[in-house]
């Protein structure tokens, strides 16, 4: 069976490895691109303040946030008093690989904004409450507001933005200057024209349909704008992604509670 994920090959990790180990042919159909903001003045200023010791904490909510800071020249250097936190293991791996920083704080329970709010230590009396929160330009206010409510003085900054690669119903080239990830190899990508031809050829056979794993709400919107051949089965990671697919008229066959190979295989009945 062929499965494609709506993210970039450079973001592949344990999920893709587990799918390949289960015997699936894994490809990618990135319909969005993560880019530095067009104006990086605010982000550059925040990095200067971080290096100067203005913040007691810096929190990373995604690997893309780490990539954005590194693309602007940050090498992971921090003042001794600045603590580092991440939302989960994937972000921790990217942080270590790109900067050498190991063993950051992360919530022991739920790996989410809610988990970070619930478990991050509250500011100690007489200590700095300044916290840097670089995030996606499209990030919700939940984390910022939750941290503020428990006493942190949060400085949010847009580290990157997610832009759709679908223009007039077709995939367009991205922006190599602002792009956070290297350009993907062609052989890693799902060819939609070839897929449509394959499906037409196989429509009267018992060949398994192609499965498309939709990884985010922004990817769901991109897919709806792109259009898909018939017999492509959609799996959504998380209920927000599933709601976006439903709203755009291409509902998912199944909704995964977690981004794991086990969850995918269970949804496929394997």
Q: Quick one: biggest sheet?
A: 5 strands, parallel
Strand-pairing-aware structural class:
alpha/beta
Percentage of β-strand residues: 15-25%
Compute the number of structural domains. 2
In the CATH hierarchy, the architecture of the largest domain is: 3-Layer(aba) Sandwich
Q: Give the integer mean of the pLDDT values.
A: 91
**In angstroms, what separates the terminal alpha carbons?**
11 Å
**Top-tier CATH class of the largest domain:** Alpha Beta
Choose one word for the global shape.
Answer: globular
The level of helicity is 25-40%
The number of E-state strands comes to 12
Rounded to an integer, what's the Rg over CA atoms? 20 Å
Major sheet: arrangement of strands: 2-1-10-11-12
Order of helices and strands: EHEEHEHEHHEHEEEHEHEHEH
Please report the number of helical segments: 10
Stretches where pLDDT falls below 50 for ≥5 residues? none
Function: Catalyzes cyclization of the linear tetrapyrrole, hydroxymethylbilane, to the macrocyclic uroporphyrinogen III.
Catalytic activity: hydroxymethylbilane = uroporphyrinogen III + H2O
Pfam families: HEM4 (PF02602)
EC number: 4.2.1.75
């Amino acid at each position: 069976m062929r499965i494609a994920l709506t993210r970039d090959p450079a973001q592949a990790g344990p999920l893709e490895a587990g799918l390949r180990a289960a015997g699936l042919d894994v490809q990618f159909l990135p319909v969005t691109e993560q880019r530095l903001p067009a104006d990086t003045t605010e982000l550059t200023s925040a990095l200067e303040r971080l290096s100067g010791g203005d913040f007691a904490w810096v929190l990373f909510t995604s690997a893309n946030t780490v990539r954005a800071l590194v693309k602007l020249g940050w090498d992971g250097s921090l003042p001794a008093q600045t603590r580092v936190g991440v939302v989960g293991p994937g972000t921790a791996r990217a942080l270590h690989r790109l900067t050498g920083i190991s063993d950051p704080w992360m919530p022991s329970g739920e790996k989410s904004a809610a988990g970070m709010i619930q478990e991050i230590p509250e500011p100690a009396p007489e200590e700095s409450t300044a916290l840097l929160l670089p995030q996606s330009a499209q990030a919700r206010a939940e984390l910022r507001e939750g941290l503020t409510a428990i006493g942190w003085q949060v400085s949010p900054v847009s580290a990157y933005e997610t832009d759709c690669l679908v223009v007039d119903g077709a995939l367009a080239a991205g922006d190599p200057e602002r792009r956070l990830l290297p350009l993907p190899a062609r052989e890693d990508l799902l060819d939609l024209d070839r897929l449509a031809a394959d499906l037409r050829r196989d429509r009267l056979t018992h060949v398994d349909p192609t499965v498309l794993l939709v990884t985010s709400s922004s990817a769901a919107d991109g897919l709806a704008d792109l259009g898909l051949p018939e017999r492509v089965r959609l799996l959504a990671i998380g209920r927000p992604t599933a709601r976006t697919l439903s709203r755009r008229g291409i509902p998912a066959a199944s909704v995964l509670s977690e981004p794991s190979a086990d969850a995918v295989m269970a949804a496929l009945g394997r």
